[in-house]
Amino acid sequence: MSVAILGAGAFGTALACALGDVTLWCRDPAQAEALQSKRENAAKLPGVPLPEGVSITSDLGQVSAETVLLAIPMQQTRPFLKTHGAALRDRQLVACSKGVDLELMIGPVGVIQSVLPDAQAALLTGPSFADDIARGLPTALTLACADRALGMALQEQLSTSHLRLYRNDDVIGAELGGALKNVIAIAAGVTIGAGLGESARAALMARGYAEMQRLALSLGAQPDTLAGLSGLGDLILTCGSEKSRNFRYGAALGRGEAFDSATTVEGAATARAVAKLAKSQGLDMPVTRMVAALVEGLITMPEALAALLARPLTDE
Ligand SMILES: NC(=O)C1=CN([C@@H]2O[C@H](COP(=O)(O)OP(=O)(O)OC[C@H]3O[C@@H](n4cnc5c(N)ncnc54)[C@H](O)[C@@H]3O)[C@@H](O)[C@H]2O)C=CC1
Ligand SMILES: O=C(CO)COP(=O)(O)O
């Protein structure tokens, strides 16, 4: 079965490098030409050559693969599918984004199903920096799919010698693991950027993980899912590395500096969505609430810190 990847950003290009024999679609014809002539995505993955088997196009009509990976940012997924969904109706769609749609309050598989109710949909998520995948470093990800047979087929199709997929049928849990860790990564970045120290970062990660579990369980995730690659695994990666855009964005917030608005920072919109979701579920998610307020510019970093430290003492 053939594979296509829609979205030639950092992650889409990295997956193309790892899988090798795929069609890579980008929306901008000029970008497609540049990728084709240089055989490199110089803007996103400089120094990583595109394998010979990767064919580039900006014409969705040329994308005939049965398995289609959607590697475009979360908040763009619904508009993209509304425009192009008809062309993808009978494919196996694998969402690769991490986040919660600000309007529908659901993750990327939920969005696919809301726009294309008959589509076969799955999720590829977990701890992986595009650069690591593209360079062939060993990586393990979660392939989540409610349909066991389809999940097994996709696991086989998308695993390589160095990219190892673990299957899971808890799509909601896997979606939330990937979405929520970005919010906590922003908090971790704020902590380091503001000079609050590594002990404070560890505390935020652990308390943030407790919040992630609370929301995931309340929305129907399986209790163990967030302890896996999508959730704890991705939390460790993203909260601990300057390579993470969510972490770097948080660090800039913590230092009171501006951050490049063209950079994809999924946790910013997701924090706002999740803060609303938590309120509607009657859940206490103080770290997420503070991140959402910081992102929206409603409070300062010292105010966020004071609010978190003034909370009543409680059981763990
Ligand atoms: N970069 C990474 O290390 C990883 C990224 N991801 C996830 O993958 C998703 C994409 O991230 P990146 O590729 O890193 O972002 P990116 O900013 O590098 O690329 C995004 C791509 O989406 C395209 N795009 C944006 N809006 C579009 C639209 N309306 N229609 C068509 N194409 C559109 C852009 O042209 C660009 O090529 C995010 O949800 C991210 O969380 C997941 C794992 C690792
Ligand atoms: O999701 C990622 C790692 O698993 C990439 O993290 P950033 O989007 O924060 O760069």
Keywords, separated by commas or semicolons:
2 domains; lipid metabolism; binds 1,4-dihydronicotinamide adenine dinucleotide; alpha/beta; N-(1-d-carboxylethyl)-l-norvaline Dehydrogenase, domain 2; Rossmann fold; NADP; 316 residues; G3P_DH_NAD-dep; eight-stranded mixed β-sheet; binds 1,3-dihydroxyacetonephosphate
**Element pattern in H and E:** EHEHEEHEHEHEHEHHHHHHH
CATH topology (level 3) name of the largest domain:
Rossmann fold
Spans of at least 5 consecutive residues whose pLDDT stays below 50 are: none
Number of contiguous helices = 13
Main sheet: which strands, in order across?
3-2-1-4-5-6-7-8
Shape: globular
GO cellular component, one term: cytosol
Family: Belongs to the NAD-dependent glycerol-3-phosphate dehydrogenase family.
Binding site for substrate: 98, 245-246
InterPro entries: 6-PGluconate_DH-like_C_sf (IPR008927), 6PGD_dom2 (IPR013328), G3P_DH_NAD-dep (IPR006168), G3P_DH_NAD-dep_C (IPR006109), G3P_DH_NAD-dep_N (IPR011128), NAD(P)-bd_dom_sf (IPR036291)
